[in-house]
Specification:
The complex is a heterodimer of chains A (573) and B (355). With 573 residues, chain A is mainly α. Chain A has a domain at 70-128 and 155-334: MetI-like (MetI-like fold, Orthogonal Bundle), CATH 1.10.3720. Chain A contains 24 helices and no strands. The radius of gyration of chain A is 25 Å and the shape is globular. By secondary structure, chain B is of the alpha/beta class. Chain B has two domains: 33-151 and 272-322, D-Maltodextrin-Binding Protein, domain 2; 154-270 and 338-353, Periplasmic binding protein-like II (D-Maltodextrin-Binding Protein, domain 2). In chain B, strands 1, 2, 3, 4, 5 and 11 form a six-stranded mixed β-sheet that branches. Chain B is globular and about 60 Å long. Chain B starts with 7 loop residues before the first helix and ends with a helix. The chains are: A mainly alpha (573), B alpha/beta (355). Chains A and B meet through helix 3, helix 11, helix 16 and helix 23 of A and helix 3, strand 2, helix 4, strand 8 and helix 9 of B.
Chain lengths: 573, 355
């Protein structure tokens, strides 16, 4: 993906160059988005209640067992999740990318479905499935085996239970990285190996695996990161089990009386670790230059599995039962049952839950409204910013474009809950009091969406050769006219796809929203979280299904446009 | 925890002695406002505002029903229910007010201590509905007219009758320490629920924190809301509920679920749930109308009949199926003690139960 023209396009020499103004404008916007909340975060971490410099907050963090234990738990959780993700997802990625397993596209689609399922919704669905006594799976287990009333197969309210659920919604990250890497790996290298007499399996072992190893490692890091910064699933499953993770602890530090200093201090290790891990990922992936060597790669050779392909397919579907089929079925069941944990039957069937959510629950309308307004606003503004910045950076249109690119990618390193804390500290006091308005949520969602949107638009711009624009410019068009007439039509589908993914990422966001909402600015994810705390599982199922229908509709639309869903990294929360 | 200089219990005892019954017996600083009836002018003004924002800790399903009943009586005034645990509602209001956001009209909490703080902060509006002045004991409303008790809650023990035989059911808090209940109990959280904040305070005062330390060894399932524990035993997720909203156990039972209530022999924790109007309420007239209706005989009877809670209104008629409050051995409520001890309770609880 090199750009043939190495000279930056000639700059306009006459008149005022408005692109400079645009650059500074957008740089300022990005600074406000990122630098302001993070500065407040650091400031608060180092001051006491009276505003004097102190390291006491960190001392408390290390000495208080109720704060130290979550830190250890979080690392164990992230490490285990990351390991299991690799073990499960890497073979699946290989099966889909490199073998003749049937239904490969369907498997991919289903992985995407687990990708877009909000993890907190998955966690609640797994409560319905595997709560030790009332869980549907455990009920079936007792009926089938005749075991006594106390025994259970799974206990989701446990540390292994939490690892399991987090893994369910994290493994797609590894899968996508591995599958994409394998698809991009030229089969010439493998052909060479075969021609030199290596068997299929030897080739796989000595050529394919080393080629894909960087992707697996990168996937492991991303999975670690996701598990570490996840808020929803631990809040739903860990608290009943009697333990905290870092994110739930940070959140609980905001309960009355709030301890923002401690929360800020607890957020910093998460932030620093995220930055380090992302650097590591960058280094690992940066070395993978051989994967995209050469101009015309032939299609990767598919390995024939013989009868084993049916076994492989069965394995894939067994894996996909966990993030997709079972949870969706449980939510569907709970939507139409009088008792959430009983199977739908004649005596148990009801539509009351739907009626309750749509017509009685007074929070529904406002939350739906807020969610969609924020989704549309974030997607629109986010896409516009991403388009402009990608243009400036890929076309190297102005000096300082690298800094812009960096600023747009930087939020990747900010976990949602940490950003929530930072924004809360920044915008609850003068001069900028945005707390209580949708603006603060918009800022949060924009910041969180920026890296994915920017990455996607940037690769779209890179795919369009600048000579098309240059031709237009040479023929006398201004930069803006060239953009409008040449670049814009070519980019249309990418823009729509980016919009869709930002929208989907926004309406499922919980970890920042839960720090920033007020009664007037509640969104669906927060409403679902609230309902979980009061045990209204049926209402959650209805709202959850609404959310899933909207999300899948949008994702289907984006997929229709055949646009790289694989390269987009949705955030978990 | 180990280096506490004096026993928490001594402090609590001390403050209890000072505080028992003192909350409403403070010297009257100002005469309470004259009792207000629902006038056509009030209804008209409320309709102009069109809505009322109701922050409450009531069970969500009932809170919405309650709001809808009001809307049916006074069409044109919509009630928006903002439900969460009482301690969460308290945090929310504090956060909103510290950022100068005045969104709440009427609040109904499950923790008297909250009203002490709000009153001290000078956030509340004095308003005494006519029914309150005529039909409520003086102990059930503030002498200065800043708050009225809307509902009286108890936090009993309860169990699932499919999982536990009647003769084997626990009779007291002490019974719950029996190893046979290990892994079979569910409990709500004092940092979320006002009912549980009060019950934790009362049990810790009467039985000592050692009780909770022993209870924590029983692998108790920890949920947040006092409205969730009855649901968890009704689902059969756990056999026994350590604490939670008694009224919901009765509601579940009357809906045919296999649950039974137990009033522990040591005494049942008590939490009176007061309501108040905020001075800076965005819809002051709708707030007063709703507040007035809530404490009228209509609203209160609905609380008794549908929510199955206890009403402070003398004219409400009891509906069979609920044990009379006077027949239950109750623990003593101490809002001032809770107000002073809340932070310590949360801290200590988090240490013992790890969440």
């Amino acid at each position: 993906m090199t750009i043939a023209v190495s000279d930056p396009p000639a700059r306009m020499t006459h008149g005022f160059d408005y692109t400079k103004l645009v650059l500074y404008g957008f740089a300022l916007v990005l600074c406000v988005l990122i630098v302001l909340p993070m500065s407040w975060l650091v400031y608060y971490a180092f001051v006491d209640k009276d505003g004097a410099f102190t390291l006491r907050n960190f001392a408390t963090l290390v000495n208080d067992p109720t704060l130290l234990d979550p830190l250890i738990t979080t690392f164990t959780l992230a490490f285990s999740t990351s390991l299991i993700c690799c073990v499960v997802a890497a073979p699946m990625g290989w099966l889909v990318a490199r073998t003749d397993m049937p239904l490969r596209r369907t498997v991919r689609l289903l992985v995407t479905a687990s990708f877009v399922t909000p993890p907190f919704l998955g966690a609640i669905a797994w409560e319905l499935l595997a709560a030790p006594n009332s869980g549907l799976i455990n009920k079936v287990y007792r009926i089938v085996t005749g075991a006594d009333a106390d025994s259970h197969l799974f206990n989701i309210y446990s540390f292994p239970g939490l690892i399991f659920v987090v893994t369910c919604y994290t493994f797609p990250y590894v899968f996508v990285l591995v599958a994409n890497a394998l698809e991009r790996t030229p089969s010439e290298l493998e052909d060479a190996s075969s021609i030199l007499g290596a068997s299929t399996w030897e080739t796989a072992r000595r050529v394919t695996v080393p080629l894909v190893l960087p992707a697996i490692l990168a996937g492991a890091l991303v999975a670690f990161l996701q598990a570490m910064t996840l808020f929803g699933s631990p809040a739903i499953l860990a608290l009943p089990a009697g333990f905290h993770t870092m994110t739930t602890k940070i959140w609980s530090l905001f309960q009355y009386p709030p301890k923002p200093e401690l929360a800020a201090a607890a957020s910093l290790p998460l932030l620093i670790l995220t930055v380090i891990l992302l650097r590591a990922e960058h280094t690992i992936l940066g070395r993978r230059s051989y994967a995209v060597l050469g101009g015309k790669n032939s299609d990767p050779r598919l390995i024939r599995l013989g009868w084993l392909r049916w076994v492989a397919l069965a394995m894939c579907f067994i894996v996909l039962l966990n993030p997709v089929f079972l949870p969706y079925a449980a939510l569907f069941n709970a939507t139409f049952s009088k008792v959430a944990s009983q199977f739908i039957s004649f005596s148990n069937f009801t539509v009351h839950n739907i009626h309750f959510v749509l017509f009685e629950l007074s929070a529904t309308k406002l939350a739906l409204y807020n969610t969609f307004v924020l989704g549309i606003a974030t997607a629109t503004i986010g896409t516009v910013i991403a388009v402009v910045i990608s243009y400036l950076t890929t076309r190297e249109a102005v000096t300082g474009h690298k800094a812009l690119g960096f600023l747009a990618t930087a939020p990747v390193a900010i976990p949602g809950i940490v950003l929530g804390v930072g924004l809360f500290l920044s915008y609850t006091r003068p001069p900028f009091v945005l707390y209580g308005t949708l603006w603060i949520l918009l800022l949060a969602f924009l910041t969180l969406a920026m890296p994915a949107a920017y990455q996607q638009m940037q690769s779209a711009f890179k795919a369009i050769h600048p000579e098309l624009e240059d031709a237009s410019r040479i023929l006398g068009a201004t930069r803006l006219k060239a953009l409008r007439q040449i670049t814009a039509p070519l980019l249309r589908t990418s823009v729509i796809a980016t919009w869709c993914f930002v929208f989907v990422g926004t309406i499922r966001e919980l970890s920042a929203a839960v720090m920033l909402f007020t009664s007037e600015t509640k969104v669906i994810s927060v409403l679902i979280f609230d309902l979980n705390e009061s045990g209204d599982l049926a209402a959650i199922s209805v709202l959850g299904l609404i959310m899933l229908v909207v999300t899948s509709g949008i994702v289907a639309l984006a997929n229709r446009l055949r646009l790289g869903g694989g390269s987009v990294r949705l955030r978990d929360n | 925890m180990r280096n506490i200089r004096f026993s928490r219990r001594d402090v609590l005892k001390g403050s209890t002695a000072l505080a028992v019954g003192a909350i409403f017996a403070e010297p009257v600083r100002a005469a309470p406002p004259p009792a207000s009836a629902i006038t056509p002018a009030l209804i008209e003004a409320a309709k102009k505002e069109g809505k009322c924002s109701f922050y409450t800790a009531m069970d969500l399903q009932f809170a919405e029903q309650f709001g809808k009943a009001f809307e049916a009586k006074f069409p044109g005034v919509a009630v928006r229910v903002e439900r969460s645990g009482a301690e969460r509602v308290f945090t929310r209001i504090a956060q909103e007010y510290s950022s100068n956001i005045h969104a709440v009209d009427v609040v109904n909490t499950a923790d008297q201590a909250h009203c002490i703080v709000w009153k001290r902060n000078n956030w509340l509006a004095a308003y005494v509905p006519q029914d309150v002045a005529q039909h409520y004991d003086k102990g059930y409303y503030d002498a200065d007219g800043f708050e009225v008790v809307t509902r009286i809650l108890v936090s009993p023990i309860a169990y699932n009758t499919d999982l536990v035989k009647k003769e084997e059911a626990p009779k007291s808090f002490a019974d719950l320490l029996d190893p046979k209940w290990a892994g079979k109990m569910v409990k709500a959280h004092p940092a979320y629920s006002g009912t549980i904040m009060n019950s934790t305070f009362q049990v810790a005062r009467d039985l000592g924190w050692e009780y909770f330390e022993k209870l924590a060894k029983q692998r108790v399932m920890q949920v947040q809301s006092a409205t969730d524990t009855p649901k968890k035993i009704a689902l059969g997720e756990r056999a026994v509920m350590v604490d939670g909203a008694g009224y919901l156990v009765i509601r579940e039972k009357e809906a045919g679920k296999p649950v039974e209530i137990v009033y522990p022999t040591e005494g049942t924790p008590l939490a009176t749930g007061p309501s108040a109007i905020f001075k800076a309420a965005p819809n002051p007239n709708a707030a007063r109308l709703f507040f007035n209706w809530m404490h009228s005989r209509d609203g209160q009877q609905m609380l008794v009949d549908v929510a199955r809670q206890y009403s402070p209104h003398k004219q409400t008629v009891e509906k069979p199926g609920v044990r009379k409050l006077s027949d239950i051995k109750l623990m003593k409520e101490d809002p001032e003690g809770v107000e002073k001890g809340a932070e310590e309770i949360k801290r200590r609880y988090a240490q013992i139960f790890k969440v």
